[in-house]
Amino acid sequence: MAYLLRSARYLSHDVLKEAVQKGDTVIDATMGNGHDTLFLCELVGEEGQVIAFDVQEAAVESTRKRLEEAGVLERAALYCRGHEHMDEAGVTDVSAIVFNLGWLPGGDKSVTTLWETTKIALEKALHLLKQHGVLLLCAYPGHAEGDRERAEVMNFLASLPPQRYNVLHQKFLNAGPGAPENFVIQKQ
Ligand SMILES: C[S@@+](CC[C@H](N)C(=O)[O-])C[C@H]1O[C@@H](n2cnc3c(N)ncnc32)[C@H](O)[C@@H]1O
């Protein structure tokens, strides 16, 4: 089958396929409708675990249903809590952490990720990653908070020490304003 260069989100899935092994512990920092949570459950297999966060009960329920239908619910712990509390889940040596910023698709657009809490979560996430673990973040400029959050994410990630982290930024240059942007961080 031909290789297709698709959206920024699919690029992050390509990285996850390489970085996550069966039996790993991974975190979905923004479960939303559970697409990424399901993808992670498939990657970690029966012996692995996925810890997932969202502040909206609707997101948790939507994700629970998706995982149940796929028969992988027992691989996941779903928390209706902000990702800024991810250190309280009691896991360490995490091989991948996924942030998909913004609001719940089809949900309340006033409930969106905010830089103030995203920053706390990113700091904790970098701490929880094991050596060679990856953090994937997809940002959505094109609305006021999304623009602000993306700019702050850029500043934060660009300032990480290169001896400890590799930081990659991907975006489709000809996709117009508001196109999603993907960031890949690997701990050295
Ligand atoms: C773009 S959606 C995520 C989509 C999801 N990855 C998927 O595959 O369906 C962003 C989600 O972040 C959630 N969110 C907002 N603030 C949050 C926070 N502080 N902690 C965790 N999730 C948050 C929103 O409720 C929304 O569901």
Structure description:
It is built from five helices and seven strands. It is an alpha/beta fold and 188 residues long. The chain has one domain (8-187): Rossmann fold. The protein starts with 7 loop residues before the first helix and ends with a strand. The model has no long low-confidence stretch (mean pLDDT 95). The protein binds S-adenosylmethionine. S-adenosylmethionine binds at residues 30-36, 53-56, 59, 82-84, 100, 102-104, 111, 113, 117. Residues 30-36, 53-56, 59, 82-84, 100, 102-104, 111, 113, 117 line the site of S-adenosylmethionine.
Topology:
Layout: H1 8-19, E1 25-28, H2 35-44, E2 49-54, H3 57-70, E3 76-80, E4 94-100, H4 115-128, E5 129-139, H5 144-158, E6 165-171, E7 181-187
Parallel strand pairs: 1-2, 1-4, 2-3, 4-5
Antiparallel strand pairs: 5-7, 6-7
Helix pairs in contact: 2-3
The structure holds S-adenosylmethionine.
Residues 30-36, 53-56, 59, 82-84, 100, 102-104, 111, 113, 117 line the site of S-adenosylmethionine.
What's this, in brief?
This protein has helices at 8-19, 35-44, 57-70, 115-128, 144-158, and strands at residues 25-28, 49-54, 76-80, 94-100, 129-139, 165-171, 181-187.
Compute the number of helices.
Answer: 5
Helix content: 25-40%
Beta-strand content bin: 25-35%
**Distance between the ends:** 34 Å
> What would you say the CATH architecture is?
3-Layer(aba) Sandwich
How do the strands line up in the largest sheet?
Answer: 3-2-1-4-5-7-6
Look up the CATH topology.
Rossmann fold
Question: For the report, how would you describe the main beta sheet?
Answer: 7 strands, mixed
Whole-number count of domains: 1
Q: If you average the pLDDT, what whole number results?
A: 95
Apparent shape: globular
Class by SSE composition: alpha/beta
Beta strands, count: 7
Order of helices and strands: HEHEHEEHEHEE
- Can you say what the CATH homologous superfamily is? Vaccinia Virus protein VP39
| Distinct compounds present | S-adenosylmethionine
> Briefly, what CATH class?
Alpha Beta
Indicate the low-confidence ranges by residue numbers. none
What is Rg? Answer: 15 Å
